[in-house]
């Protein structure tokens, strides 16, 4: 029995509609990722202003307290609504959760400590070496295999970092090592996150991150504490809210699109960092910083592309 000609468009319309929905979802995820970079860049600008008024440790503590006040009640309310009690505090890998929390807190503190001395664009560009470090750490800790193409991209990215830092020249700032160490700390946290992937809900990971950060920083805070005024408290709240919203938008972005598609768009933050740094602080990135940031971004784009190819099983 032949299919009537009027049925053919309907039969072919289903895959087309599904393809259209998938493309729209990927686009939505991409736009959300770009939006998150605006929040992160704004948070970094506020952090730089606040780091000129208070010790870096205290600034990071304010960020984490705000983060905790936003995340923990939300996670608890979600648990209670499900009738599951306080399941958000129960982790299958508590040791790894604590280790991840240490890595995140160290990353935030080191990056914040660099901001009184470096322009936001320069500190951000150096920090974006973290995907390369994650790739390197994934070999011994996750048993992943990295081909020569991704190693080549990593070396290119490192050359971009060297252009920004320029060690051995009069332009070198010792503070440039701080965001590099911060990127290393974040890379460790990211590898731990991959290692415990699927073991705990996202809410549990966020709550552990908040609690570990607050606990660690609160132990050190009395040694550096400076009484904040109303302006500093306001800046601290704004910083924490902007950063938390940025992370929340990233989570939404990954729900809509593949990581290999949207991850490279995180490099748009380099653009916002340069623009906001100029508008707020009057700092103009020099040609070396712009060139280095561009090389880092291109390396990240290519690494993400190779991840996508590898995931598809083509190479």
Automatic annotation (TrEMBL):
UniProt KW Plastid keyword: no
Keyword Protein transport: no
Keyword annotations of the record: Membrane, Transmembrane, Transmembrane helix
Entry protein name: EamA family transporter
Record organism: Microvirga thermotolerans
Pfam families found in the cross-reference section: EamA (PF00892)
Organism domain of life: Bacteria
Gene Ontology cellular-component annotations: membrane
């Amino acid at each position: 029995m032949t299919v009537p000609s009027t049925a053919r468009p309907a039969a072919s319309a289903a895959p087309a509609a599904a393809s259209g929905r998938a493309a729209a979802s990927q686009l939505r995820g991409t736009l959300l990722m770009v939006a998150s970079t605006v929040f992160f860049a704004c948070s970094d600008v506020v952090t730089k202003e606040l780091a000129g008024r208070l010790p870096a440790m205290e600034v990071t503590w304010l960020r984490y307290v705000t983060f905790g006040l936003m995340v923990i009640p939300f996670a608890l309310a979600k648990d209670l609504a499900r009738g599951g009690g306080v399941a958000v505090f129960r982790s299958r890998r508590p040791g790894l959760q604590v280790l991840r929390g240490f890595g995140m807190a160290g990353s935030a503190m080191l990056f914040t400590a660099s901001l009184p001395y470096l322009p936001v664009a320069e500190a951000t560009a150096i920090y974006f070496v973290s995907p390369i470090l994650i790739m390197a750490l994934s070999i011994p800790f996750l048993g992943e295999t990295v081909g020569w193409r991704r190693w080549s991209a990593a070396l290119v990215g490192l050359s971009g970092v060297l252009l920004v830092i320029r060690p051995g020249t009069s332009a070198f700032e010792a503070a440039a090592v701080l965001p590099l160490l911060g990127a290393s700390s974040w890379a460790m946290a990211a590898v731990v996150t991959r290692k415990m992937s699927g073991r705990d809900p996202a809410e549990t990971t966020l709550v552990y991150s908040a609690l570990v950060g607050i606990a660690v920083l609160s132990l050190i805070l009395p040694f550096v504490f400076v009484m904040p005024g109303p302006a500093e408290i306001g800046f601290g709240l704004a910083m924490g809210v902007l950063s938390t919203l940025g992370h929340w938008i990233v989570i939404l972005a990954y729900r809509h699109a593949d990581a290999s598609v949207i991850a490279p768009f995180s490099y748009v933050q380099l653009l916002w960092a340069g623009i906001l740094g100029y508008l707020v602080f009057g700092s103009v990135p020099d040609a070396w910083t712009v060139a280095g940031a561009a090389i880092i971004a291109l390396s990240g784009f290519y690494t993400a592309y190779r991840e996508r190819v590898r995931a598809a099983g083509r190479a």
